[in-house]
Amino acid sequence: MPDVNGLLSAALLMLIMIDPSDKILLVSFLREDFRIEDIRALILRANLIGFLLLASFAVAGQIILQEIFHIDINALRVAGGFVLFKIGLEALESGGMFTLKREKNILALAAVPVAMPLIAGPAAITAVITLTAEQGYLVSLSATALAIGLVALSMFVALYLMKSVNRTFLSVTIRIIGLFIMAIGAQMMVQGVVGIYLLMTSAG
Q1: Rounded distance, CA 139 to CA 11, Å?
Q2: Per-residue CA distances from 191 to 65, 122, 130, 177 (Å)
Q3: Pairwise CA distance, residues 5 & 30, whole Å
Q4: What are the tens digits of pLDDT across the range 57-79?
Q5: Taking the CB of residue 169, how many other CB atoms lie within 10 A of it?
Q6: 82 and 189 in contact (C-beta within 8 Å)?
Q7: What pLDDT was estimated at residue 25?
Q8: CB 76 within 8 A of CB 184
Q9: How far apart are CA 115 and CA 51, in angstroms?
Q10: Residue 89 banded pLDDT, cuts 50, 70, 90
């Protein structure tokens, strides 16, 4: 049975990596062109696909890295931390993390770009693989399920309860989250470098 505090911390990490504020902004754009019923179907489908993708990386990611490519988890921390830092910097500068291509069929957006990369993006994929390596499959999958559930809930709240979305406020929120993502990325890089140094020291 996973530690509750550890599980909540992992879920919070996944929630930050996925970033609900960006998805709320997405819903506000979609409401201008599509019916609520169609957007609801998109939310359900996209979050399900996003969870399945992240669950796949949680289960198979570490095996692929270590058994097939022989990549140490510390190397993943360095590379993943750099990716997170870059994503956070872009969000901090632009106030957004996606560009939306207009489609006549809204469900065509469910897999790409909503499920991937907006939900199961590089940040979330890196985080879920790292969580599996550090805390095991149960914590990683449970945290991902909790985070995805909260993301879907926030999108439904925006769809049904928010008649108008203050895009300036959301843009500021995205920038703040971008700063947190940069900090997490920097921390992951430091942990990875220290881990590689200790591994080389012990091997020597």
Answers
A1: 9
A2: 18, 19, 12, 21
A3: 36
A4: 999 987 887 778 888 888 888 88
A5: 10
A6: yes
A7: 83
A8: no
A9: 8
A10: confident
Alpha-carbon distance of 34 to 15, in angstroms, equals 27
Amino acid symbol at 175: R
114-152 per-position pLDDT tens digit: 898 889 988 898 899 989 988 999 999 999 999 999 999
CA atoms of 185 and 132, how far apart (whole Å):
17
Torsion of CA 113, 115, 119, 121, to 10 degrees: -60
Q: Tell me if residue 186 falls in helix, strand or coil.
A: helix
d(CA 109, CA 105): 8
Type and span of the H or E element at 197? helix 167-203
Helices (H) and strands (E) in the chain, counts: 7, 0
Indicate yes or no: pTM above 0.90: no
Distance (Å, whole) CA 166 – CA 187? 32
Angle at alpha carbon of residue 79, lines to 77 and 82, rounded to 5°: 100
Token pair recorded at residue 128: 């879920």
